[in-house]
Structures are given as C-alpha cells and as structure tokens.
Design brief:
seven-stranded mixed sheet; alpha/beta; binds glyceraldehyde-3-phosphate; single chain; about 40% helix; 14 helices; cytoplasm; six-stranded mixed sheet; EC 1.2.1.9; ALDH-related_metabolic_enz; about 500 residues; NADP-dependent glyceraldehyde-3-phosphate dehydrogenase; Ald_DH_N
Length: about 500
C-alpha cells in the first residue's frame, strides 16, 4: 500500500517527505504542494515544497557523494542497481496504486510501467558493465607526420551531478531511464519529479534507498516549478540535464549552462497509410497508438494521413474499434481514463471546438465529464485546423485524407515536431523510401510509434528534442571521454 509498510517512513502526517543525504526529510519551508487526483478532482496527496536553500544543500551533497561513487568499482555499482530493480518489482503494487491515483493510469498499465522500469534498471546495469568496461587504444603513426611514439588510452568518465526531470505520463519509467544510466556511469543524481506523479516517484526512490546506495548519491526534491524549477536547471552544481516533457525543455535549453542536455519534448507523430496497406493492421495500430493512456504519450499517433481511395474503409475500421474502447476510472482498468488535469482537458476541448467550427467530421459525439473525455475520431481534418498541427495529449485523433504520398510526407515534415512516425504499406521498398524522407527520429514500418524496447535508440528531430536516449545512448551521453597519452622516448614498432 502507498505510504504504508516499508513506505511508512517516507510520509509525515499526510505530506510525503523529500529525499536527501540518504534520509527522508520535511522541508523547512513548512509548505506543501497538493496533487489532485484526475478522476475525483480532489486532493489525493501532498508533497513537500522544497526551498532554494534546500536545493543548494542537495547539490552540495550530490557533488560530494559523486566523488566516492566514481571510485566505486563498476561491478559494485551494477550490483546495487540489480538490487534496486528487484526491490522495485517487489513493490510494483504500491507504486502502481500511486500511478492510478495521481495520473489516472489504467491499473494494468501502471503495473506494467513499474515492471518495465525494473527491467530497464537491470538491463542498464548489464549494458553499463559491458560498455564502460571498454575503452580505446590508439597509436600515433596513423596520422601523417607522426611516428609510432604515442599511445593513447581513452575511457569514459562520469560527468558529475545529473539533474533528471521526468514527465507526468511516466513518472517512474522515465525517471529510471535517467537515474540508472547516470548511476552506472558514476554520476550522482538529483531528481525533480513532476507534481502529478511525484508520489509514485518518491516510492520508486525509496526502492533505491532500500537497495543501500551511499548517502547523498540519489536525491529527490519536490516543490513548485515557480520556486525551484529555474533554480535547479540553472544551478551551477548541475553537470547534465536529462529532461522529458513539453516545450519547457526549449526554455531550459536556452537557460542551461555549457552542459550536456538530453531532451525529449513531445511529438505530432504522423501515421501514413498507403493504398496497399493491410487496413486491419493499420486500424488496430491507429487505435492502440492513438488512444493508449488516453493519448497522453509523446509517441502517440497524433495525425492519420490516409490515401483518399482507402480512407472510407480505414475510418470505418477505426471507428468500429474506437466504439469498443471502455471509458471510465483507471481503477477499473478502462482504456480511456481522465486526462491529467483540468487545464489539459480544457486545452483538448479548445482543439475540438476549433475543428468543429472549421467543419471537421465528428465520427463520435464529443463528450466530456470533468477530466474524462470520450475518444473522438475527427475525419476530413484540413491543414487550417489547429488539431492538424498541435499535440492534444488526449484521446482525440485527426484524420487527413491525402491524394498522394508526397502530400502525406509534406504534412509530416511541415510539423515543428519530429519524434516518430509510421507508415503502413505492403511494399517494403516504398516503406524504406518514405521512412528515409520523413523528418523524424524514428519511423516504424507497419506498427504504431513507440519508445520501447528500452534499449532501442530514441530521439526526436526539430522541436522534439536534443540527443538520443535508449539505454546505451543514455549511458554514453552521461559520460565524457578522458584520454591518457603515453609518450615514448623513441618510436616503437611491432615485430618485424
Ligand atoms: O511520452 C513519452 C514516452 O517516451 C513514450 O513512451 O512509447 O513507451 O509510450 P512509450
């Protein structure tokens, strides 16, 4: 149970504590931040509103702890991560309960998120042992003008303190996808969870605490973005920022110092359906891709671009599947659950009303109760409608009918976003040609966009992000290359 049993020490009264110096603490601010349950729209949890002084202290601790962590053998770092992964999985029910209550994630998906997170942590430990256990050896005589008198040994070293800022939709999984690579690479960690999702993240952090990581190495501060948001991202003690979220990331990248940034900032993933596509396969993926977790995934299908000749047939198939989606509370494991906040629901409604005014065809009646929005397919969407370009982050899916593949590619590439896209066709040659010209970080052929499996490279072009994630890429991104050059007194060639 959340806040009970082994999790009792992370709560004081009805306010969850923050984590620093290996201990659960109350903020000296005496203030808290409320977390509203998207389903009941009542306060579900409260977390500490940490102050800037507390952030300063955490940074100091993280810096000191990192020095000795970097000297901890790699196999020991991996061992602790494996331990944390196992504890995390053991406590999947309590953490999933928080995900259900604070972000309205359907119950089964909430459990899946925690299990996936444990697997991610273990895989990262194994991958880290492999890739950080290797370096490079270079000799100088391959470059013109040099004899073989210099040997260069290069290896990967940690960056220092990594600031991890995950989003509300995966507060556990997209936190550990930053935490585990940072730790295996010898960095320390400051986590700033999103407000909705903070309590799930605090429970996850407690699993790392129970695994026995050194004091100060992992820290988690909660609070108002207006008080500690910029303060954290511009803090001189931060050596790397890994952020997933909305366009706040663009602002962060403008303000951050000369440090490596890893950013994933959303998408408007296009699904191009050609005349020769398997329409049943396409429809199934459009519904899964567009409506899982009520469309609140950066990799959700956010616009369908279908050839006019098969559009009627595809829309009918998608409509039939949408009709089968269950709508209701996350506790009942419904497919469509309330969106995360009232302001999100209002934003989504604004897009729907704009499409209505401009003449889109509503395949279902628009229905909303509080934060709960029924799934809606909008046909005959045109480029002058906001929904053609903007990311609803809700269960609303526009269909644009196209007369040529080029028209579809043009729409996809005219977007500011470039996260993923997908193409449905039985012609693999065409699929490759289209994938090559789509300006997105990944193109899925005959399947909906998705980040996983978690070791695959995951990256966005344009406003969708900076850098590449996925386990291997994240470990590499959280390291620097260090070289040691051995200068020989005279050239040394091999036998002969
Ligand atoms: O919301 C952004 C996530 O990175 C998407 O992950 O494709 O596993 O749902 P997912």
């Amino acid at each position: 149970m959340a806040g009970k049993g082994v999790f009792e020490e992370i709560i004081d009264g009805d306010v969850y504590k923050y984590y620093a110096d290996g201990e659960w603490k109350k903020s000296a601010s005496g203030k808290s931040v409320s977390i509203i349950n998207p389903t009941t729209r009542k306060t579900q949890y409260k977390v500490q509103a940490c102050s800037q002084e507390e952030v300063n202290k955490v940074m100091e601790l993280a810096k000191a702890a990192q020095k000795s962590w970097a000297r901890t053998p790699l196999w020991k770092r991996a061992e602790l991560l494996h331990k944390a992964a196992a504890i995390l999985k053991d406590h999947k029910a309590s953490i999933a309960e928080c995900l259900v209550k604070e972000i309205a994630k359907p119950a089964k998906d909430a459990v899946t998120e925690v299990v996936r997170s444990g697997d991610l942590v273990s895989y990262t430990a194994e991958e880290g042992v492999r890739i950080l256990g290797e370096g490079k050896f270079l000799v100088s005589d391959s470059f013109p003008g040099n004899e073989r008198s210099k040997y260069c040994l290069s290896s990967k070293i940690p960056l220092g303190v990594v600031l991890a800022i995950p989003p509300f939709n995966y507060p556990v999984n997209l936190a550990v996808s930053k935490i585990a690579p940072a730790l295996i690479a010898g960095n320390s960690l400051v986590l700033k969870p999103p407000t909705q999702g903070a309590v799930s993240a605090l429970h996850m952090i407690h699993c790392f605490h129970m695994a026995g990581f050194p004091k100060g190495l992992i820290n988690c501060v909660t609070g108002k973005g207006s008080e500690i948001g910029d303060f954290l991202t511009m803090h001189p003690g931060v050596n790397c920022i890994s952020f997933t979220g909305g366009d706040t990331g663009i602002a962060i990248s403008k303000k951050a110092g000369m440090i490596p940034l890893q950013m994933e900032l959303g998408g408007k993933d296009a699904c191009i359906v050609l005349e020769d596509a398997d329409l049943d396969l396409a429809a199934a993926n459009i519904v899964k891709g567009g409506f899982s977790y009520s469309g609140q995934r950066c990799t959700a299908v956010k616009v369908v671009l279908v050839m006019e000749s098969v559009a009627d047939a595809l829309v009918e198939k998608v409509k039939a599947k949408v009709a089968k989606l269950t709508v209701g509370p996350p506790e009942e494991d419904c497919d469509i659950t309330p969106v995360v906040t009232e302001s999100s629901a209002n934003f989504i409604e604004g897009l729907v009303m704009d499409a209505k005014e401009k003449g889109a065809t509503f395949c279902q009646e628009y229905r909303r109760e509080g934060n709960l929005i029924w799934p809606l397919l909008l046909d005959h969407v045109r480029p002058d409608m906001r929904i053609a370009w903007e990311e609803p982050f809700g269960p609303i899916l526009p269909v644009i009918r196209i007369n040529s593949v080029e028209e579809g590619i043009h729409h996809c590439n005219a977007s500011n976003f470039g996260l993923q896209g997908c193409v449905f066709t039985r012609d693999i040659n065409k699929a490759i040609m289209i994938s090559d010209v789509m300006e997105t970080g990944t193109v899925q052929i005959n399947s909906a966009p998705a980040r996983g499996p978690d070791h695959f490279p995951f990256q966005g072009l344009k406003d969708s992000g900076i850098g590449s994630q996925g386990i291997t890429n994240s470990i590499n991104m959280m390291t620097k290359v260090k070289s040691i050059v051995i200068n020989l007194p005279s050239p040394s060639y091999t036998m002969g």
